[in-house]
Amino acid sequence: MNTSLFDIQVNGFGGVDFQQPGLTGAELRRAVDALAAHQTLRFFATLITDTTDALCEKFMELERLRAADAVVASALAGYHLEGPWLSPAPGYHGAHEAGLMMAPEIGAFERLQAAAGGNIRLVTLAPELPGSVEFISALVGLGVQVSLGHTQASGAQITAAIEAGARFCTHLGNGVPAELHRHDNVMQRLLAHDDLIAFFIPDGIHLPPGVLKNFFRAKPAGKALFTTDCMAAAGAPPGRYPLGNLWLEIGPDRIVRQPGKPNFAGSALCPDEGVRNIQDWLGLDAATARALFSTAIADIFQVVLPPITETA
Ligand SMILES: [Zn+2]
Prior knowledge:
Elements: E1 5-10, E2 12-13, E3 16-17, H1 25-37, E4 40-48, H2 52-67, H3 70-75, E5 76-82, H4 106-115, E6 120-125, H5 132-141, E7 145-148, H6 155-164, E8 168-169, H7 186-191, E9 197-200, H8 209-218, E10 224-226, E11 239-243, E12 246-250, E13 256-257, H9 271-282, H10 286-291, H11 295-301
Parallel strand pairs: 1-4, 4-5, 5-6, 6-7, 7-8, 8-9, 9-10
Antiparallel strand pairs: 2-3, 11-12, 12-13
Helix pairs in contact: 2-4, 5-6
The structure holds zinc ion.
């Protein structure tokens, strides 16, 4: 019997955006059931850059809905907070609102963590922002993992972040401008650190299959793991879907587009589809491909994965 998949970056699923004001318990349950139908019984809901007040409201609402439904409560294993402590530079901020980005401050995090019921498990940040080293140390001291993303940090800033306790790279190969210096760029700087665990989006769009293969081979065994970074369009038909304050378009090609902008804004990838892709594109056997999207990640975050039942 297979073990559930585990996705640490889910912005929404099955037509439901976790950051919509007025999100109902029925909608959240629909997304959880749709994830289960794609073999994913545990995930981290991801909230992206917004004001601290707005994020606190979203966390409190999600916690309220979570407390009212036991299935949702166990599936939603925690939160991944991606922003607002990211690079506002063009190309690096991606679909996040650059104007809302700021230097990290532990008081703001404590407010957010209180609103989230202590369930923020992972924070993505850009370690070039002032105060990052102290902030990363404080988060790690509180048992929260830190990932580097939407960043143009220097080699020294990356090293300092790792020494402070940062362990991951968020969707490595994305959250950067389309054109960069061929050698002196943050992807190469991050990739050069064997101790960083990199998460990749295996949808064939964020990274073409050959590029994914190159990145994967550049990491030591067990240091390349996978996530969807999916939004509401995953597990749903093409159309227009919200992601926080944005409206995004998803065509038959499954590319998530922010109208009028060149960047990607999340994926429409389902986790089980991601497992098939990494198996096909990286030449992995089924068990290994599955582990890199489930148990290998769950072990790090000490999340217990249930077996997949016949119906799931
Ligand atoms: Zn991102």
